[in-house]
Amino acid sequence: MISYKDLGLVNSREIFTKAMKGGYAIPAFNFNNMEQLQAIIQACVETRSPVILQVSSGARKYANQTLLRYMAQGAVEYAKELGYNIPIVLHLDHGDSFELCKSCIEYGFSSVMIDGSHLPYDENVALTRRVVEYAHKYDVTVEGELGVLAGVEDDVSAEEHTYTRPEEVQDFVSKTGVDSLAISIGTSHGAFKFKPGQKPEIRLDILYEIEKRIPGFPIVLHGSSSVPQDIVAEINKYGGALKDSIGIPEEQLRKAARSAVCKINIDSDGRLAMTAAVRKVFVEKPAEFDPRKYLGPARDKLKELYKHKVINVLGSNDKA
C-alpha cells in the first residue's frame, strides 16, 4: 500500500472548497506520457494553478501502474524545481469497477472516480457507496456520476446523452457519501461533440437546478474540450482528416466555472494540439526522425493551450 501523501500529492477536498468559494474550476488534464505531464506541470506552475492529473483505465494500461506512481511523484518534485509547489491531485478518470479503484488507491492515487452511470440507479448507488467506504479509510476522495455523456474517449462510449435528473442528486449524494458529482448537461467525450449547423449549447438550467438542490456541493463536468477550430484547421492543413469537429464554447464553460462546478475535464483539446504540432514537423521536416524534435514542439503547444485554459476558461490562475 502506497499513500499518496508520501508522494507529495493532495486529495481534492480542500482545493474544491476553495474553488467553489472563489468562483473558478480546477483543471483536470489527462496524461499518458512524459511530454504531456511536463506540459501540464509547466503550464500550471507558470500560471500558479492547482491541477488534477487524470489517468483513465486505458492510460493506466498504456503507461503502467508502477511507472505512473513515480511519474506522479516526479511531477510534484518537478513543480518544486520550476519554482512553485502547486497542489497536485492524481485522479482515476472513469473507473468502472471497485477492483480498479482499490488498485489505484493502493498505488498512490489521491482521488478516484467510480462511474456507475451506465448501471440502474440502485446499482450505481451501491457500487459508488462501496468505493467511498474503502477510499475514505485512506482519506482518498471519490467522484461519482449521474447521467450519461455521449461520445467516445478511451474505454468510455455512449451514443446519446442521458441528462442528469436534478431530482435524483440529493438522494444519490446522501446515500453514497461521494465527495463530488459528475453530471451530464450536454458536454460529451471526444472531438466530435456537435455537427455543423447545430448550436453547441450546454444545459446550464439543469446545472443551476442541481446547484439549488445540493448547495455547496462540488460538481464536475466531463467532456469539456472546445475543439479549437484553428487547431483542427492546422491538423487538416498538414494531412489530417478531422472533418466536422466541434466542441463546447469556452464562454459557456467559463459561466459553469463560476457556479458549483469546481472541476472541468479537458482531454481532447490537448490531443488535438499535440497532433497539430507533430504533423507540422513531419510535413515541414520530412527527414526528421529524432522523437525529441517533434515531441518537444508538441509539448510546447500543449503547454500554451493549457495556460490559455487555466487563465481564460477555468479562472484558476494564481489560486495555488
Summed up, what is this model?
By secondary structure, the chain is of the alpha/beta class. It has helices spanning 13-22, 34-46, 57-63, 65-82, 98-106, 121-136, 166-176, 204-213, 229-237, 250-257, 268-284, 291-314, and strands at 26-30, 51-56, 88-95, 111-114, 141-146, 151-153, 156-158, 180-183, 219-221, 261-266. It is globular and about 60 Å long.
Q: What value does the average pLDDT take?
A: 92
The backbone outline, from C-alpha atoms, is globular
Strand order in the largest sheet: 1-2-3-4-5-8-9-10
The description of the largest β-sheet is: 8 strands, parallel, barrel
Topology pattern, helix = H, strand = E: HEHEHHEHEHEEEHEHEHHEHH
Name of the CATH homologous superfamily: Aldolase class I
Please state the second-level CATH architecture.
Answer: Alpha-Beta Barrel
Q: How many helix segments? A: 12
Task: Please give the alpha-carbon distance between the first and last residues.
Answer: 28 Å
User: How many discrete structural domains?
Assistant: 1
| Share in helix | 40-55%
Q: Radius of gyration, Cα only, in angstroms?
A: 19 Å
Alpha-beta classification: alpha/beta
CATH top level is: Alpha Beta
